[in-house]
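Sample A.
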Amino acid sequence: MFALPGSALAEGGFFDWVHGDWKLIVGATGMVAPDFEGAKDLMFTVSPIISLGKAGPEARFTSRNDGISLSLYDNGRMRAGATGKIIFERDSDDDLEGLDPVRFGAEIGGFAEVYPTDWLRVRGEVRQGIRSHSGVVADIRVDAFKDITPSVRVSGGPRISFASADDFESYYGVDATESANSGLSEYYPDGGIKSIGFGGAYDWKVTEKFTTSVFSEYSRLLGSAADSSLVEERGSLNQFTFGVSAAYRFDFTM
């Protein structure tokens, strides 16, 4: 969201960097998505949209898939910074009965995105789990985008996700105790690829500060996620998501 040369903090100090015009984007996403990772049943959920940065040139493209972001570098062709994601507790419904819960927590890390052309963005995120799990998650997304009108944009592209063994253990592992309590076969996952998929969106800029979106996503579980007894015995390899989102930009000065 804003340019931050490598020497900016050293030359002017942190408070000089903070001083100036900022923008805060907040909103929410309502979607029909799998009841839990690997589930075959869908449920309605709500998640927040939060993005903070210094006022400056607008990012060429943003997606509801982007984590909570704080941009620290922007040269027009590349942006990079900090990112995070809120992890909600995994409820113990019938399919999860007997499995250890996934606690409310977060994932914190960094992102980088590049624009090979004026209509294509490639973004990668790497995040470390906090409290909910102790694993590392990485996402790579490619989105082509086109402005149909000055206020309407369509976009879409492929996605791929990876995770460490600790992340897979939290969501897809079944140890001996969990197996006895749940009836699922024991399963001890390794790290690696989690899923591949495709997503698309239709964005409408209602006003200069208010934007809405309709989107859909499909992913197919692979690797340790696909081989999990939870998925094989009670879930599905195919994961579908449909939803809408709305976000508003607040401008302020510090």
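Sample B.
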Amino acid sequence: MTGITGRVALVTGAARGIGQADAVKLAEEGAVIAALDLYEESCATTVGLIREKGAQAKAYACDVTSSRQVEEVVAQIAQDLGPITLLVNNAGITRDNLIFRMTDEEWFSVINTHLTGSFNCTRAVQRYMVQEKWGKIVFTSSTSALGNRGQVNYAAAKAGLEGMTRTLAIELGPFNINVNAVAPGFVDTEMTRATAYRLHKDPEQWKQERANQIPLRRVGTPRDIANVVAFLCSEEASFVNGQVIYISGAPGRA
């Protein structure tokens, strides 16, 4: 894919799962990776995988809900690696519960991590993209944005990210910055395995049950998502803007 080589890419939530796959795929396409998570040591595996491929990566620690921490780490990344022109807003958590049981902490922690965190990172990074007159921003939404029992916080946050995507595509498009989102369906990650345990199900059994509901008869992998993210970060997607691409193995939510 063209346009990625030599670009500095900030990937949040890069320690594992989809974020890790995004970082590795972008590195394979030639990007220099700033792998960010709550703790720097959490990204050691991601950085190691990238360096094994002969690509460049560095780990950074940051709580994305803190605008001060985000401003500081983005400035440090720009100093260490160069201007950031690729941003993958992937950091997220789940705190599932039915609304009558949901606590303030469960609501605000999810909203703040997904929405405020993505806002903080985008606001800090877009100035470099505007200066460079080139940029690609990808948000990680979810099919849960369409509604999902026990996830009123998560669904609201993901739907909010889709609104953020469309709005920023309008605001930043004149500066040659593309803003899009991917919305994965069921993907085999630590997060979905944790959901299985919460439902008192064996993770493999849960995965097979979900696969049976998908026309392709398999669940997604982090790499499935990363492939689309890399496309959206490339010049091949230069006329794709303000779109939410659902990656669920089905026409609907699956």
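B remarks: The domain at 8-185+223-247 is CATH 3.40.50.720 (Rossmann fold). The chain has two domains: 8-185+223-247, 188-219.
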